[in-house]
Amino acid sequence: MSSSWRAITAFLAAALIAGVTIPVASAAETVSARGSSTVQRWSQPSTWGGTLPAAGQKVVVPANSKIVLDVDTPALAGLRIDGSLRFANKDLELTSRYVVVHGALRIGRADKPFKHRAVITLTGAESEQNVMDMGTKVLGVMGGRLDLHGRRIPGWTQLAKTAGPGATEIEVLGTPRWRAGDRIVLASSDYWRSHDEERTITRVSGSTIELDEALDYRHWGELQTFAGREVDERAEVGLLSRNIVVRGDSSSDDTGFGAHTMIMHGGEAHIDGVEFTNVGQRDRLRRYPVHFHMDGDAPTSYLRRSSIHDSSNRCVTIHGTNRLKVQGNVCYDHIGHGFFLEDGAETGNRITGNLGLGTRETDHGLLPTDRQPATFWITNPDNIVRNNAAAGSDGFGFWYALPEHPTGLSIRPDIWPRRTPLGVFRNNVAHSNGDRGLNVDSGPRPNGQTEATYYAPRVDPSDRDSEYVVARFDRLTAYMNRDRGVWLRGEHHVVSNSVLADNRSGATFASAESFLEDSLVVGETANKGMTESWEDPGHDGRALPFFWEPEVQITGFEFYDGRVGVRNTTFVNFKSNPVRPSGALGYLAPDAFSIDPKNFAETVTFVDSTPVYLAPPEPGMDGDLAKVFVDRDGSVTGTSGRAVVVDNPFLLSDRCNFRAVWNAHVCNEDYVSLWVGTENPTKIKPLTITRDDGATQTLMGCCDDSTDTITSILPNQSYGVAFNEGTPVDARFVLWRGSGRSLTLRLAVSSTFSVNRWGWPIPEKNTLAGLAASDESSYHYDASSSTLHLKIVAEDTDWEEIRVRSR
Length: 807
Description:
Layout: H1 3-18, E1 30-32, E2 39-41, E3 58-61, E4 66-69, E5 75-76, E6 78-81, E7 84-87, E8 92-96, E9 99-101, E10 104-107, E11 118-122, E12 138-142, E13 145-149, E14 156-158, E15 169-171, E16 183-186, E17 197-205, E18 208-211, E19 223-226, E20 229-232, E21 236-239, E22 244-248, H2 252-255, E23 260-264, E24 268-272, E25 274-279, E26 290-297, E27 302-304, E28 307-311, E29 316-322, E30 325-327, E31 330-335, E32 339-341, E33 350-352, E34 355-360, E35 374-378, E36 384-386, E37 389-390, E38 396-400, E39 424-426, E40 429-431, E41 436-440, E42 443-444, E43 450-451, E44 471-474, E45 477-479, E46 484-491, E47 493-496, E48 499-501, E49 505-512, E50 514-517, E51 520-522, E52 554-559, E53 564-572, E54 582-587, E55 600-607, H3 622-625, E56 628-631, E57 642-646, E58 656-659, E59 664-667, E60 672-678, E61 687-691, E62 696-699, E63 708-713, E64 718-723, E65 730-736, E66 742-748, E67 753-757, E68 760-761, H4 768-773, E69 778-782, E70 787-793, E71 799-806
Parallel strand pairs: 1-3, 2-4, 3-6, 4-7, 5-8, 6-9, 7-10, 8-11, 9-12, 10-13, 11-22, 12-23, 13-24, 22-25, 23-26, 24-27, 25-28, 26-29, 27-30, 28-31, 29-32, 30-33, 31-34, 32-35, 33-36, 34-37, 35-38, 36-39, 37-40, 38-41, 39-44, 40-45, 41-46, 44-47, 45-48, 46-49, 47-50, 48-51, 49-52, 50-53, ...
Antiparallel strand pairs: 14-21, 15-18, 16-17, 16-21, 17-18, 19-20, 42-43, 56-57, 57-59, 58-59, 60-63, 60-65, 61-62, 61-64, 65-71, 66-70, 67-68, 67-71, 69-70
């Protein structure tokens, strides 16, 4: 017995045990070919025992039979292929309610592509019919082999020059060998993903393509050069037509009940140059246009140079399948996530050279995240993602949505996607997305909701204390994304050799030890985008990323959390104008959370740019009050080691100079972090800290129920600390990020208390002078004023924690 039949037998046994319904037609409904070891033709009555299959019948190609389809079929009720069925070299159509392949279905060969037109139309209204657990309106491969090889033609290219509204021809890169009558799609090159346009080719002459209708929008097609580096915002052009077509019937689009192709249980698929259209079944789990379902290790299977469009449910789903090749495809006009790695156990897949656009949000998707979909949804980092273009989504371009452990059918507590090293992410493009180009955050929980996700790759993902591994996101081009080109959360990430242009913010790292390196960041290029008729443009008629909030700042790199930094990077065209402020470097704002005062910039270059703009602090936002970063080499401020500081008097000294255009100060000072915490249920807010010279700030914590807060502070000074309802019975004070520094704090404490460091008492000093001279954490208590003077000394640590308990 072959391995394929063993897989089928095992499935049938399991299905019977589980009570799965497997429809079996009666003999009167079913037409079976005569078993034969010789090649038979479909058109010969003798193949079928004297009578050709008729419309409404179910047809079986028995095991060991070899049939050549040489005529169009009638509309069959079903087709099961246990032997082999091969399309003859002519134009042909196969129409059936379903096609299930246990043997082999072949149209063309890898070494001899099919050059005629072959159409498989899957028919029927919405139904609960469940053929071999694959539903209906399905081309299903279970333990069998699917070979579909159409014309080998480039699936997509880019414009060679800009095509404006009213244009009836376009010029593209190269000569892609497309034909009159082919359908193409032009990607948006501005902030609206809906500015993509579908047209029919009427004539091709070299690289010039004539269209059946004039264009409605401008599609950018020029290379631009800044500081010696190219910015490529040329719109993609994708070919939708192929000479082999798998499609749903004419009712599919209106009902959302389209065709789907499913490869599972050891099935093998070689798909090259195929068009899938009127596909996907809305709101139905496992009913996707092209779906590799629990197919295990699949190194010989591939989906290449194909198009998937007009889909009611995703584009390509890789579920429980590894080492699959998905290369050079076009995915257009689909609901929910596009290229979809489902559970988080899928690894070693090669997702390369694909174009995805027209990724549409929905309130009725299979996951809550389909309300903010990604063209590429990746749930395990150990995959190769290279040379792809995410060219227009209502949500994200690329989303590394990493679960703690794989979910769904792939539950594996021994797999840790959030600590798994990154495979390859290189030379990808993300543009015209409604939110972020690249998003590494917000991983799914088992219930489908998401949570803030800290991606921290380790050598051994099962050991959170093993050595870290740098996750390098290399050669990304991200432009015209409404929010950010890049958002990362985690640690030990590097975005390198990248070009970020025309985004609201180039990059924001909610991370630690994560850096932007060797990159070019452009605030505004010559590509001004296009606005809708009701949309107010910005300065000089330029489209705005946040047209509903035109005053929002444009920033190249936003500091946040930390330690994060930018180095060896050039910033171009960050200038304030009458509509909104701009600075190459800034901070995420408003911000209630902590930041690292050791965040830094070095070896950065500014061309026609304001180097820094720090927004004024908003009331109640602790992070806004703490904004500091270090100019390591003087490339920002002109003097190495200077700090750039928010306009907050509490952080300033006579060694600071205000730069009005930056709305920030340049200070010859060092800054550390002070963390103050209480035990539940005591809330921290408001906490007032007063410097000896009277400078005061009030902290509120990040959230309504915060029991702690963190702020930047000048070290080696003395401060008063006042809690809203008096010093709590249990309070902790940490000098953080301040090795070799000290702080002295004053707080009201009752006469009975203890002061400990990691559970051990610290020394008491008899006088304030003795405390001031101490080179270790210690305290002095003034009984006359019930004041505790607490000196915190970080001798050789970046976390010196002292706990004060009242009794």
